[in-house]
Each structure stands twice: as C-alpha cells, then as structure tokens.
Design brief:
Blueprint: H1 2-20, H2 29-49, H3 63-81
Helix pairs in contact: 1-2, 1-3, 2-3
Length: about 80
C-alpha cells in the first residue's frame, strides 16, 4: 500500500513540477511518475547540500522537494532541447 501511495505522490509531484517549469503539452501518467521520482532524488540531494529540512515527507517521500526537483529537471530538459 505504501508503494502505491508513493506512486500517486510521485505522479502529482511530477505533474506539478512540469507545469511550474512551463511544460504545456500533456504528458502521460508514467512520465509524471518518472519526473516525480527524479525530482525526489534531485530535490532531496539539493536539500541535503544546502542543509535544508525535507519538510513534508509522507511515506518517506519529500513532496515539496520532489516538486522543486521535477521543475528544475524539466527546466533543464527544456533548456537543452530548445533550438
């Protein structure tokens, strides 16, 4: 049950992070989940490097930092893929 809850949180975090970074094209649920997990790793790492608290972490998933990390990751992808 905890794994399914983590997938749901990752999907929401990935979707919100992509919207914050300016992604306007619709994306699938799987892409949102992957973005959420990448954002969680990137955001958690960033929080530890800056010595900041992880804030709200239901099921050991740093939601706020996952959204921030997903937004940073999508912004980086947009920067790289722009022509």
């Amino acid at each position: 049950m905890s794994f399914l809850f983590s997938l749901l949180i990752a999907a929401i975090a990935g979707s919100l992070g992509a919207r914050l970074a300016g992604r306007t094209k619709p994306q699938g649920c799987l892409v949102s989940i992957v973005l959420g997990f990448i954002g969680s790793l990137l955001g958690g790492w960033l929080a530890r490097q800056l010595d900041l608290p992880l804030l709200w972490t239901p099921a050991d998933f740093p939601v706020i930092w996952a959204i921030i990390g997903a937004a940073l990751f999508v912004a980086l992808l947009n920067l790289i893929s722009r022509r």
